UniProtKB/TrEMBL annotation:
Name of protein: Enoyl-CoA hydratase/isomerase family protein
Gene3D superfamilies (UniProt xref): 2-enoyl-CoA Hydratase, Chain A, domain 1
GO molecular function: isomerase activity
UniProt xrefs under InterPro entries: ClpP/crotonase-like_dom_sf (IPR029045), Enoyl-CoA_hyd/isom_CS (IPR018376), Enoyl-CoA_hydra/iso (IPR001753)
Protein family membership: Belongs to the enoyl-CoA hydratase/isomerase family.
Biological process according to GO: fatty acid beta-oxidation
Pfam family, one: ECH_1
Length: 241
């Protein structure tokens, strides 16, 4: 990813990502996908706040539905995926890491978290289910209600990430593991992924309308708009006179 200094997702980024995934999904020689950032400070800081602030209901709904579709396309990508979390990983960025099969994270200088509650938003039920299955109901509850942004060692302790590596070794170790996965046959690579992901498909499709409706409603609420406005204000340069 290389959209801006914090790798936030705007509408075009979601569309492009989905197009890339669909383009490569049927490549019979593909065995594994690595998902990382060209930045060193941020893996992804989530949704670009200007995408949701001050927009019409139809524009917000369009963006929300595209976000949910792209995330589900990534979740069901037919070969193993590895999120190489080389910087801060928040909100929607953390959802894409969560939706990966494996998560390798830098050991220092980065945090991961689902910070929606901090800015007055809700959290869709689809990634909530995946998060609960990964770290347990109680841990997922605490992460979501508090919006806590945790460092690598704690993320590994609770099972949110698989391995930690230094910034110098992170990509090399990720590639080493990817090369191991690449030795799988096409049938094994895709068959195992199907077995792991297919049980979620019907639930995801059935919950999509509810998630889209509620997330759109919350974003358009006063709390949601104030939350996105606060994120925009934090990015503005401060001048001393």
């Amino acid at each position: 990813m290389q959209s801006n200094e914090k790798n936030t997702f705007d509408f075009e980024a979601f569309v492009l990502f989905e197009q890339i995934l669909k383009k490569h999904a049927e490549n019979p020689s593909l065995r594994v996908l690595l998902f990382t950032s060209a930045q060193t400070q941020f893996f992804s800081n989530g949704i670009e706040p200007t995408l949701m602030y001050g927009k019409s209901e139809s524009d917000v709904r369009k963006s929300v539905e595209q976000l949910l579709r792209t995330a589900q396309t990534y979740f069901h990508f037919p070969v193993p995926t590895i999120a190489v979390v080389n910087g801060h990983c928040m909100a929607a960025g953390a959802v894409f890491a969560l939706f990966s099969d494996y998560r390798y994270m830098v050991d220092k200088g980065a945090r991961i978290g689902f910070s929606e509650a901090i800015v007055g938003l809700n959290f869709p039920s689809i990634p909530t289910i995946v998060l609960q299955d990964l770290v347990g109901v109680k841990v997922a509850r605490d992460l979501l209600y508090t919006g806590k942004q945790i460092k690598g060692p704690e993320a590994k302790e609770i099972g949110l990430v698989d391995e930690l590596y230094t910034a110098e070794n992170l990509f090399a170790e990720s590639m080493k593991f990817a090369e191991t996965l690449a030795k799988l046959t096409n049938n094994s690579s895709r068959g195992m992924k199907t077995a792991l992901r297919e049980p979620y498909r019907n639930r995801m499709e059935s919950l999509f309308p509810t998630d889209a409706d509620l997330f759109t409603k919350v974003i358009l609420s006063q709390d949601g708009q104030e939350g996105f406005h606060s994120l925009i204000e934090k990015r503005r340069p401060k001048f001393v006179t």
